[in-house]
Structure formats: structure tokens, C-alpha cells
Specification:
293 residues, alpha/beta, Nitrilase/N-carbamoyl-D-aminoacid amidohydrolase, 6-stranded mixed beta sheet, 5-stranded mixed beta sheet, 24% strand
Length: 293
Amino acid sequence: MPQPLPMTLVQESPLPADRPVSAFAADVEALLAEHPDTGLLAFPELHLCGVTGTRSERDERLRAAAEPLPGKRSAALAELAGDMGVWLAPGSVCELGPNGELFNTAVVYSPDGELVASYRKVFPWRPYEPYDPGDRFVVFDVPDAGRVGLSICYDAWFPEVARHLAWMGADLVLNPVQTTTADREQELVLARANAIVNQVFVVSLNAAAPVGVGQSLVVDPEGRVLLEVADAEPAVLAPTLDLGEVARVRERGTAGLNRMWEQFADGDAPLELPLYQGRIDPGRWRPRGGGAG
């Protein structure tokens, strides 16, 4: 039986890229003092890599802030998570790839002080972002609670991301965001839509003013908004999520009706997908097992 997962979600403006992890550690310690039951602590996209300037200056500074994984910054974050005894998702960071690539990479550290997940943003916001795209979807298990899938900001506009994470057994899609533009209204709809069509929890955690437009929210597997921030001011959301609700919704159906993951019957013919030069095989349609246990 999954155990509830207490989360602390921090809607803040990004920190300067040259700010040491030790200073971020003081922020984490203060937050955990206010929310001592936190199981998973999460921050917005590029929270540790804030830069300013013109587009060319920004891109240059982002590249200057990039470090390999593993690297010095990652080691310090792992040590911080271990010292605090918390699942730490410090937003995404600028990762320097092995061939000089620049990735926007979400990282997660366990209470044991280990890097347990790193996800390179598959859909950089082109033509505005300088990142190279990632090539795989990533989930990780929080023992006794459930499985979490990672996406980053613009990924939410591509249904393939949330669908693959759900198929990989994610109960929760954690989507750190740094949206500065007028399309946040659409992103709020997408957060609910991705939750509904995949029957998963979705957290869309945006940066605060003056960089981001805020409006972070937590959505349940039927698309209901559980918690939200109405504006761009710094804020903290502290939901406790029972990720076992995903299995219950899929069993009884959304609104007591719709069981999309049970759509195919034994013997149904595969559905060709010409867009992908592939197909849906009914025998592979259902999600893989989640991570609780």
C-alpha cells in the first residue's frame, strides 16, 4: 500500500548561476525547518542557473554555467540531500555533455545522497533556447510512495512525453518550469489535460517574479486542481499526495467512467501510427508497474 508523499514545492525566482551551492543549502535548511515532514523538495526549471542579458549574452552565460554530470555541483547537491535526508529536485541545471553539448537537465537526489535521476529536456523551446535535445524519458522510484516521471517546461506541450512517462509507470509527472511569457494560461490547461488523458498527478512548478510568471499548480489524476498559486509572487506549496490514487482512478475510471488504459481487448489488431512509422500494440498498451511497495 503506497504511503503518502509530503512535498514542498518552491515557487521562486532563479538564483544567480555563480551563487555557491552552500548558499542554496542555507535556503534548503530554512525550508525544511518550516516544513519538517517534507519527503520531496522541488524547485523550478534552471533554479540554480539564473542568468540575465541579451539573448547572446544569456546563451554564453548558460554555457559558462554548464558542468558535466557527475561533477562538482552535482556532488555538492548529492551531499546536501544526504545531509538533509530528503528527496531533492533542485530544478534543472545546465549540463555540459561529453561532446560539448549543452543540455537542460532535471536532476534528483535521494536521501542517501545519490544522484538517482537525470533527464535532459527532449523539447527545448526553439528557437529561443540554446540547448541540445535529450533522447530518452526518465522515471525514478520513491520507495513506499510511488514512481515519478520528469519533464521540463515546454515538454508539456508534446503529449508524447507525459504519455511515455505514464506508460513507464509514473504516478506523478514533475514538470519544473521557467515560463516568462504570456502562454502560461495555456500551460495550465496542458497540466490538467496531461493529468486527465494519462490518469496521473501533474505538478507544474514555475519560477516567480521578476523572472517567471508563477501560477504553479498541482493536479490530481482526474484533472482536478488540488493546489495553485494565483500570481507570480514567491510562494510555497506543501501538498501531501497519495500516489496510490492513480491505481484507484484507473480501476474505477475518471469521473467513474473512463478507463483509457483498458481500451484494448485481447485479440484487437495493432493500430498503425504512420506519424511515428510505428504502431500501438494492444499487448503493450497498459502501463508498467509503479514504484510503490
